Amino acid sequence: MQLVRLIILAVTLIVLAIIASRAKLVPGKAQSIVEILIEFVNNSIIQNTLGLREGKRFAPMLITMFFFIFAMNLGGVIPGLNLAGTSVIGMPLLLALWTFVTYVVFGVKKHGLGGYLKHETMPPGVPKPIYILLVPIEFLQVILIRWASLTIRLLANMVAGHIMMVVFIGMTQALLFSGSALIALAPFSGALAIGIYGFEIFVAALQAFIFTMLTAVYIQMATSDEH
After folding, report:
1. Which domain, by its residues, includes 206?
2. Do residues 12 and 64 lie in contact, with contact meaning Cβ atoms separated by under 8 Å?
3. Rounded to whole angstroms, what are the CA distances from 106 to 101, 125, 212, 221?
């Protein structure tokens, strides 16, 4: 797994470095794809969630996070690798903790430690008796639930997709060599495997988008003046 992650990381950095070094005013196909993805993340996630000023502040982190997760997710559909870099808990956990540390640090910088805890756990307009239940729930969400849910969501989706592909590819192979009338079902099983393969590419992009979007939302919640 570590080798797979290193290969994906190295290839991604090399490809992006080559594209950046050959950037032109009139972009080619590869440069256009990268620029479209950057614009998509910037417009759909960063600007919409954090606004212009805060968006510029966190854009490098969020764009890097999107590309990194997307590349790691694609490892599961690349022949020869066949394993997403995010399909083992270590990588999703580190990414989630990166998000956690970022929104806590910048939240404390904005409000101070006491002010940040109050900001996150005591939303205005709530009847005071409700705070008895709300404060511990919100506190638990800030320190545990957010990053744990990020980890589990990314991990579960990538593992599930990998298992589905393995099952249908294995089924297709078993049917082909069954030596019985069941061989007639092999094309259908193979078609499903190809369909799942294509769907996994979509899921790889979707999970990168969701993870990055939630990171931006948590940062916005921590650094805003009010919820």
Report:
1. 2-223
2. no
3. 8, 24, 17, 11
Per the structure block, which two tokens stand in for 28?
């080619």
Distance between alpha carbon 203 and the CA centroid of its chain, in Å?
10
- What sign does the dihedral 160-163-169-170 (CA atoms) show? negative
Tell me the C-alpha to C-alpha distance, in Å, between residue 139 and each of 2, 145, 215. Answer: 34, 9, 18
Mean pLDDT of 25-42: 90
**Displacement of CA 28 from its chain's centroid (Å):** 27
| Helix 48-74 and helix 2-21, axial crossing angle in degrees, nearest 10 | 120
* Number of domains forming the structure of the chain: 1
Average pLDDT, the chain: 89
CA dihedral 124, 129, 134, 135 (to 10 degrees): 80
Angle CA(89)–CA(135)–CA(212) in degrees, nearest 5? Answer: 35
Mean pLDDT of the region 7-24? 90
What is the DSSP secondary-structure string of 112-181?
-HHHHHHHHH--TT--GGGHHHHHHHHHHIIIIIHHHHHHHHHHHHHHHHHHHHHHHHHHHHHHHTS-SG
d(CA 73, CA 207): 8
pTM for the model: 0.90
